[in-house]
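Collaborator request, handled under Task 6.
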Amino acid sequence: MEALLNARAALLQALYEGPGHGSALARRVRDRSGDQIRLGHGGVYAALTQLQRGGLIRGWTVAPGRRRGARARRTYELTPKGIDVAERQRRALRAVAGFALGPDPVEMVAMRERLREASELSAAVLSLRDAMPR
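Structure tokens returned to the collaborator:
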């Protein structure tokens, strides 16, 4: 199956949920996609470098604790520009995927109201039908 998102887009969406380091972000993408999207380590770090050069993310190195064998990790987060791009992407994905990503909360409130009104209308029609002579 062809990839639904490229590595950069998938990582922006993973970072929209919060900061992380490369392998944790790849795991987040894999978990959120139900194991449908798997990013290789080489692709992850190349994409993170491109996103950083584009000003969409920033990274910093976190020094290891005093654990034996620990190593420094580079942690990434979205910049304000990256947040805007990720939100636009998310809206586009939601428009394409519809309810697969879950409806917009504002849309859910409107939908509940429409269902309530339809239910009231249906009850009124049924009571009119029952009141009609046969």
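The cover message to the collaborator said: "The chain has two domains: 7-102, 103-134. The beta strands are 20-21, 57-62, 73-78. Please let us know whether this matches your experimental observations."
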